[in-house]
Design goal:
- The structure holds 2 protein chains of 2 kinds.
- By secondary structure, chain A is α+β, with helices and mostly antiparallel strands.
- Chain A has a 4-stranded antiparallel β-sheet. Chain A has a two-stranded antiparallel sheet with strand order 1-2. Chain A has a two-stranded antiparallel sheet with strand order 6-7.
- Chain B folds into 4 domains: 68 residues; 98 residues, Winged helix-like DNA-binding domain superfamily/Winged helix DNA-binding domain (Arc Repressor Mutant, subunit A, Orthogonal Bundle), CATH 1.10.10.10; 68 residues; 83 residues, Arc Repressor Mutant, subunit A.
- Helices cover 50% and strands 11% of the residues of chain B.
- Chain B is globular and about 55 Å long.
- The chains are: A alpha+beta, B mainly alpha.
- The interface between A and B is large, with 69 and 114 residues.
- Chain B: It holds the Pfam family DUF2398.
- Chain B: This is TIGR02678 family protein.
- Chain B: It comes from Streptomyces brevispora.
C-alpha cells in the first residue's frame, strides 16, 4: 500500500493532502476528489475541469465552471492533484485564451482518498453478516478434503485453499464483530429518527432471516467438514504443506524456524476456525453465539418499534397542547369555567342519569304517561318510606342478633346431643353377645343399620379369596367386627324400616372397643 | 328462521353490548388491566359495533387497542360546569385553579418524558414549566416547597393514578408531601396519549375568550349541507341524551326542537336499545332514566346524611314551585334536623353547618338538572317534580319510637 512517506513535500505539511477536510467547502473538495477516484476506477487518468464539473452532484456543483477550476487549483496547491497544461483542441475562442490544464491524482492525493475511504467505511459500516462468506468457506473446506486424498498434497493448491479460507474467515469474523456492535448501537439508539429506523428495520429483519437460515444450514455443514478433516488425521499434513510453501521464500539459514513458525501460525488459525463453528471444551462456538445474538436482535428491535409506536400514538405537539391548557386554566375567570374547560378538553366525565325504581317502572308500563304531561302532573317517583324517613334503606342495629345466635347454637347443641345419643344407642344395639349368625341379628333401626353396614364394609374390605375368618376395626377405632364364613351357604335377612337386607349368612361378633367393660364381659381377645 | 338457540345467543350478544356501552359511558378511558379489565374485554370484543354506533350517532371516536379503550366524548353542551375533575379521596373535592394548572403541566412533562418518572423529578419539571411567560402573566407560580403545594401535586398524581396514566412502582405520595421521600411511577403512554378528547389541539387554537376557546376545541368540520346539519343535530341531541340527566326543550334552538319533535321516538329508542336507559318523556323535556341505577356519578335518591337531606330539600323545593333563597333552605334544614336529625351524622346536626349542607344539596340537584342556581338560592326545574312526595309519612315518624342507637352512614 502506498504511504505518504513518499509525498512530494515531506515535513511539517506532510499531511497537506488532508487540508481540504478542515477548510470551507469541504463537501465540494471531497466530491471533486471523488470524481477523480471514480475516473481512476474506470481507468481514466486525466480529467478536464468540464469533466469534473459534469461529474459533480447537483448540491455541491458551483454555478460557474470557474468555481470548479478554483477548487482544482486549491487541490493542486495541497498536493492532492497535479495539473498539466492541456494541449487538446478547443472549440471556443475564450477557451483558447484561458490557461488550460488537465488534472490527475497525485500519489499523495490517492493515498489520502484511500485513507478517507477506509475511515468512512469503518465508521459507516453497519456491520453486514456475510452469508456469501459461509458458502466460500464450505467450498474451500471441500477443496481441502479433496486434497487430503492425495498421498503428497500439492503445496501450492493447499496453500491457496488455506489462504482463501483464512481471508474469507477473517472477513466473516470482522463483519460479525461489526455487526454485533452496530446491532447494539441500533437498539440502544432510542433517539433514532423514526423513518431511518423503520427503513433499517425492514432490511435488518430480512437480512437476519436469511443469515440465520444460512448459519444454521451452512454452519452445520462447515462443522461437519471440519470434523471430517480432523478425523482423517491428514489436516496436519495439509497445514505443514501450506506452511512449507509459505516458508519457501525464507532465507536459507532461517528455513527451519520459518517453517515451524508458519506451521504454528496456520495451526492457530485452523483452531480459530474450528472454534468458530464447533462447540469445544465447554466453550460455545462463535457461530452459535452469533445465531443467538441475531435471534435476540429481533425482539429487541421490536421493543424499539414499540417505543416509536408509542411516540407516534402521542402527537408530537401534545406537550405544547398541555402547556396551552395549563395557561387557559390559569386564565379562566372562575372555577365554573375551569370545570367546563376540563369537561370539554378531556371528556373523562361519566354519564349522569336520574334513576327509576322497578315499582315505578312497572306502574308506568301498566299506565303509560302521555308525552305531553308536565312533570308536575305525572305521578312522582316512589320513594321508599324507610329511605325518606331515615336516609337509608335497611334497618340498623338489631339487638336480637345475639339472641338469634344463642338459639341457633342451642339448636345445634341439641342436634349434636341427639346424634350422639342415637349413635350410642345404635352401638349398644349392634354389640353382640358373643358370636351370632347374621340371620339371628333381627331388626335394625336406620341409624344402627347404617353403622352396621359400615362395619360390614370394613370387614369385607379385608376379605381375600380363600379366607374363612376376618377381623376388622371400624374407621374411628371404636368398634371391632369379627366375621366367619359358614359352610352351609344359607341366606341371612336383616329387616330395616326401609327394606330388607339379604346376603350369605355369616357368623358375626361385634365388640365396642370404647367400652372397657365389654372386653371383660364378652369373650374378650381373639 | 330463528331457532331458540339463535335467540339466546342474540340476547346474550345484546346484553354484552349493553354492558360494554354502559362501561364506556361511565368510564370513557378503560385499561386492559386493573379493576376495569373485565369491562375492557367486553368493549374490545364489541369494539367495531360500538365504534360504528358512537361514530354515527354521537360523532364520538372510539379508539381501542390492546391496552386501552377510549371514547373521546365531546359534551352535548359546553356551559355545564357540574362535571369538575375531583380528588381521588373520599371527600372528592373539585379541583382548584392551581390543581388544574398543575395537572396540565404534569401532563406536559410526562408527555416529553421517559417511560418512568419520579415524583420529585416531575415536580422539578413542573416548576420549570411554570416559568412560562403566559403562566407568570396570569399570576400563578409554583415552587412546590410548601406542604400545601405538594398536597396539590399529590392530588394531581392520584387523579392520574386513578386514570391509569401512572402506575406506582415504589414509595407513596404521603411521604412526598411530608418531604420524607419520593415516589416512582411507570408512565402508561397509551393512556396518556388518549387523554385529550378535543377535535383540535389546544395549541392550535388562537381564541382569547374562554367560551370561544371551548367552542373551537370541539368544533367539527364546517357544515354545508342539510344532511350534515341534520347529522350534527342528531349527534348533539344524542350526546345529551346519553350523557346528561335531563334534556329540557327550552334549552334547544328552534331547529333542534323541531328536529327532536320529529325524531324523538327514533332517537330515544336508539339510546334505549344500546344502553337500557328508559325515556321519560314529559311536556318540558326528556330524561333518560336508568332502571339499573348505576350509569351515573351523582345518585338521587341516595342513602346517607347528604343524600337524605338532598331528598328532603328536593321535596321542599318541588312543593314550593318557585325560587327559594339559601336562607330559606337553611331554615328548612334546621326544621328537618328536628325531625330526622337522629338519623344524621353527628357533624350534620351541629348548628351552623346548615349553609354547607344546603350548598351540597343544591350542587347535587343542579348537577342532576333538577334545579338551577339563582343569585341567592335555587330555582326548581320541571323534572324536580319527580321527587314531590306527600307529607303523611312524616306524621307517622313522629309517633314511632325509634331505637336511639344507630349511626347514620356518611354520604
Amino acid at each position: 500500500m502506498t504511504v505518504s512517506a513518499t509525498a512530494p513535500t515531506p515535513g511539517p505539511d506532510g499531511f497537506s493532502p488532508f487540508a481540504h477536510l478542515t477548510v470551507q467547502n469541504t463537501a465540494l473538495y471531497r466530491q471533486v476528489m471523488r470524481a477523480f477516484v471514480m475516473a481512476k476506477e474506470h481507468f481514466a487518468v486525466h480529467l478536464r475541469p468540464e469533466d469534473v464539473y459534469a461529474a459533480l452532484p447537483g448540491e455541491v456543483r458551483p454555478a460557474e465552471l470557474d468555481g470548479v477550476v478554483k477548487a482544482l487549483d486549491k487541490l493542486v496547491g495541497w498536493g492532492n492533484l497535479r495539473a498539466d497544461p492541456d494541449t487538446g483542441r478547443v472549440s471556443a475562442v475564450e477557451d483558447f485564451y484561458r490557461k488550460r490544464f488537465i488534472y490527475q491524482l497525485t500519489r499523495a492525493g490517492e493515498a489520502a482518498e484511500e485513507a478517507l475511504a477506509a475511515y468512512d467505511e469503518a465508521l459507516g459500516r453497519r456491520g453486514a453478516l456475510q452469508a456469501i462468506a459461509l458458502h466460500d468457506i464450505v467450498t474451500q473446506l471441500r477443496a481441502l478434503l479433496v486434497l487430503t486424498a492425495d498421498e503428497q498434497p500439492d503445496p501450492g493448491k493447499t496453500y491457496l485453499a488455506f489462504d482463501a479460507l483464512a481471508s474469507r474467515f477473517a472477513a466473516l469474523a470482522d463483519n460479525a464483530r461489526a455487526f454485533m456492535g452496530s446491532l447494539q448501537r441500533t437498539i440502544d439508539l432510542h433517539e433514532v429518527e423514526e423513518a431511518v429506523f423503520l427503513a433499517y428495520k425492514d432490511r435488518l429483519i430480512q437480512y437476519l432471516e436469511r443469515f440465520i437460515q444460512d448459519l444454521i444450514t451452512l454452519g452445520g455443514r462447515i462443522a461437519q467438514l471440519i470434523l471430517e478433516l480432523e478425523e482423517s488425521g491428514r489436516i496436519e499434513v495439509l497445514l505443514r504443506a501450506a506452511a512449507g510453501r509459505e516458508a519457501a521464500d525464507a532465507a536459507p539459514e532461517e528455513a527451519e524456524s520459518a517453517a515451524q513458525e508458519a506451521y504454528a501460525h496456520w495451526a492457530g488459525r485452523w483452531d480459530g476456525l474450528a472454534a468458530w463453528f464447533l462447540t469445544r471444551n465447554g466453550r460455545e462456538s462463535q457461530a452459535r453465539l452469533l445465531r443467538g445474538r441475531a435471534l435476540g436482535a429481533i425482539p429487541q428491535m421490536l421493543a424499539v418499534v414499540r417505543v416509536l409506536g408509542e411516540r407516534r400514538a402521542g402527537r408530537s405537539d401534545r406537550s405544547a397542547d398541555f402547556r396551552t391548557l395549563a395557561r387557559w386554566f390559569a386564565e379562566a375567570a372562575d372555577d365554573a369555567s375551569r370545570h367546563r374547560l376540563w369537561r370539554a378538553a378531556f371528556g373523562l366525565h361519566p354519564a349522569r342519569h336520574l334513576t327509576i325504581d322497578a315499582d315505578t317502572l312497572a306502574a308506568r308500563v301498566t299506565a303509560p304517561v302521555p308525552a305531553s304531561t308536565p312533570w308536575a302532573a305525572a305521578a312522582p317517583l316512589r320513594i321508599s318510606p324507610q329511605l325518606r324517613r331515615t336516609g337509608s334503606y335497611e334497618r340498623r342495629g338489631k339487638p336480637r342478633k345475639v339472641e338469634d345466635r344463642q338459639e341457633r347454637r342451642r339448636h345445634l347443641a341439641e342436634v349434636a346431643a341427639k346424634q350422639v345419643a342415637e349413635i350410642a344407642a345404635a352401638r349398644a344395639r349392634l354389640v353382640t353377645d358373643g358370636a351370632v349368625r347374621l340371620s339371628e341379628l333381627g331388626e335394625f333401626d336406620p341409624v344402627s343399620f347404617g353403622l352396621f353396614l359400615q362395619l360390614l364394609g370394613d370387614a369385607l374390605a379385608t376379605w381375600r379369596p380363600g379366607m374363612r375368618h376376618t377381623v376388622a376395626t371400624s374407621n374411628d377405632g371404636s368398634m371391632e367386627i369379627r366375621l366367619s364364613a359358614l359352610a352351609e351357604g344359607t341366606t341371612a335377612q336383616i329387616r330395616t324400616p326401609s327394606g330388607t337386607f339379604h346376603g350369605p349368612d355369616h357368623l358375626i361378633e361385634i365388640v365396642d372397643l370404647t367400652d372397657g367393660d365389654v372386653l371383660t364381659h364378652g369373650e374378650g381377645e381373639r | 328462521m330463528t331457532t331458540p338457540l339463535a335467540e339466546v345467543l342474540d340476547g346474550q350478544h345484546a346484553a354484552e353490548l349493553r354492558k360494554a356501552a354502559r362501561a364506556l359511558l361511565k368510564q370513557p378511558l378503560l385499561l386492559s388491566h386493573g379493576k376495569h379489565a373485565q369491562e375492557f374485554r367486553l368493549v374490545r370484543r364489541h369494539a367495531s359495533e360500538l365504534r360504528e354506533w358512537f361514530d354515527r350517532n354521537t360523532g364520538w371516536p372510539l379508539h381501542v387497542d390492546a391496552e386501552t379503550a377510549r371514547l373521546r366524548k365531546i359534551p352535548g353542551v359546553l356551559h355545564d360546569s357540574t362535571h369538575p375533575a375531583c380528588d381521588a379521596t373520599r371527600a372528592a373535592a373539585p379541583f382548584t385553579r392551581r390543581r388544574y394548572v398543575l395537572l396540565c403541566l404534569a401532563l406536559a412533562a410526562l408527555e416529553r418524558g421517559e417511560a418512568q418518572i419520579a415524583l420529585g423529578r416531575l415536580a422539578d419539571q413542573v416548576v420549570l414549566d411554570a416559568t412560562d411567560p403566559g403562566l407568570v402573566a396570569s399570576g400563578i407560580q409554583f415552587t412546590l416547597d410548601r406542604r400545601d403545594e405538594r398536597l396539590d401535586l399529590a392530588a394531581v398524581v392520584r387523579l392520574l393514578l386513578g386514570l391509569g396514566v401512572l402506575r406506582r412502582v415504589a414509595g407513596d405520595e404521603d411521604a412526598y408531601v411530608n418531604g420524607a421521600g419520593d415516589v416512582l411511577y411507570d408512565v402508561e403512554r397509551r393512556a396518556l396519549a388518549g387523554l385529550l378528547a378535543t377535535r383540535r389541539g389546544p395549541s392550535t387554537v388562537q381564541a382569547e375568550a374562554t367560551a370561544d376557546r371551548l367552542a373551537q376545541l370541539v368544533a367539527e368540520t364546517a357544515l354545508d349541507s342539510d344532511d350534515l346539519r341534520f347529522r350534527a343535530m342528531r349527534q348533539t341531541l344524542t350526546r345529551r341524551l346519553l350523557d346528561d340527566p335531563v334534556l329540557y326543550y327550552d334549552e334547544l334552538s328552534d331547529a333542534e326542537l323541531s328536529y327532536l319533535t320529529r325524531q324523538r321516538g327514533f332517537l330515544t329508542a336508539r339510546v334505549a336499545e344500546l344502553t337500557g336507559l328508559v325515556p321519560e318523556i314529559r311536556a318540558e323535556g326528556i330524561a333518560m332514566v336508568d332502571p339499573e341505577d348505576d350509569l351515573t356519578d351523582v345518585r338521587m335518591p341516595e342513602q346517607g346524611t347528604h343524600g337524605h337531606i338532598t331528598l328532603l330539600l328536593a321535596e321542599y323545593l318541588a312543593g314550593a314551585g318557585r325560587p327559594v333563597t339559601t336562607d330559606q333552605l337553611a331554615r328548612r334544614v334546621r326544621e328537618l334536623a328536628a325531625v330526622h336529625g337522629t338519623f344524621w351524622a353527628k357533624a350534620a346536626r351541629e348548628p351552623g353547618t346548615e349553609a354547607e349542607l344546603v350548598e351540597q344539596a343544591v350542587a347535587r340537584l343542579a348537577a342532576l338538572g333538577l334545579v338551577s342556581r339563582t343569585a341567592d338560592g335555587a330555582e326548581p326545574r320541571p323534572a324536580l317534580a319527580r321527587y314531590a312526595v306527600g307529607e303523611p309519612l312524616v306524621l307517622e315518624a313522629g309517633k314511632v319510637r325509634l331505637p336511639a342507637q344507630r349511626k347514620a352512614r356518611q354520604a
